UniProtKB/TrEMBL annotation:
One of its GO terms (molecular function) is hydrolase activity. Residues 1-18 form the signal peptide. Residues 51-169 form the AB hydrolase-1 domain. InterPro entries: AB_hydrolase, AB_hydrolase_1, AB_hydrolase_fold. It comes from Hymenobacter citatus. Keywords: Hydrolase, Signal. This is Alpha/beta hydrolase.
């Protein structure tokens, strides 16, 4: 009931101010398709300025950035992407990997005639941002990654999430999914069950400055987040107080300001925000 009341109050407020909510993720006025690497990718663009690529998490879409796009669109050319097999992006393949998605990002930027971009990734999007910086270093000006992990086990994920995922795998393993949506959902689930596999030592080769973020009650273990930060040559770290996995939504105003500060900071990154 409280969610219905909150939605009604928001709707009344928008009507009172003559505003209409932007349907992020389903905005035909801002939406585009690009066929790259044999995949039809959907993305929306907002604002003008230096390009900023937004990468959502597992099972999500570009609409997950509804609380962030309006802020960043004031200063950046925001490119909010639906990753392959997510949202409105079409992918008929039978497998999924972070390397595929990172290569998609590089190809999309090339398609848009952009040499490089700032990158903000949440959860799986944060992993993709790091892999993009590893595989295509020239494409990443700076990256911010919140709630990212480098391997898929209980040393990186909280025990509760790990157990939940293990139950999900046991229930789905061996099944034949004839429905296209369920088959796609299973492919997306397997991505986080099987991947990623990025050694901490690999991060030393990332040249782009990085902002590593997680909530203090995140589903990513705090020590894992700190290890990622410590393994990067040029990085800031922010453990967000009173926050779960959705730092960019739960603390949107502060999150937007700090990430923007990081993107615009002087090149020498020696102190945290």
């Amino acid at each position: 009931m409280r969610y219905c009341i909150a939605f009604l109050l928001l709707l009344l407020s928008q009507l009172a101010h003559g505003q209409k909510a932007v349907p992020y993720g389903h905005n035909s006025a801002a939406g585009h398709y690009a066929t790259v690497r044999g995949v039809k990718l959907y993305y929306e663009t907002y604002g003008a300025g230096a390009p900023l690529l937004l990468l959502h998490g597992n099972g999500g879409s570009s609409q997950d950035f509804a609380k962030n796009i309006p802020y960043f669109a004031k200063r950046y050319r925001v490119i909010a992407l639906d990753s392959r097999a997510h949202g409105r992006s079409v992918d008929t393949g039978d497998s999924l990997s972070f390397e595929m998605m990172a290569d998609d990002c590089a190809a999309l930027l090339t398609h848009l005639r952009l040499d490089s971009a700032y990158v903000l990734g949440w959860s799986d999007g944060g992993i993709t941002a790091l892999v993009l910086a590893l595989r295509h270093p020239g494409k990443v000006k700076r990256l911010a990654a919140t709630g990212a992990n480098l391997w898929p086990d209980s040393t990186a994920l909280t025990p509760a999430l790990w157990q939940q995922m293990r139950r999900g795998y046991r229930e789905g393993h061996g099944q034949t999914f004839t429905d296209a949506k369920r088959r796609n959902d299973w492919k997306v689930f397997l991505l986080d069950w099987k991947e990623p596999h990025v050694p901490l030592s690999a991060l030393a080769s990332i040249k782009a400055p990085a902002f590593i973020i997680a909530g203090d009650r995140d589903v990513i273990r705090a020590e894992h987040t700190v290890a990622i930060y410590q393994s990067l040559p040029r990085a800031w770290l922010w453990i967000v107080p009173n926050s779960g996995h959705g730092t960019l939504q739960e603390h949107a105003d502060e999150f937007n300001q700090k990430v923007d500060l990081f993107f615009r900071a002087e090149s020498r990154l020696s102190t945290a925000p």
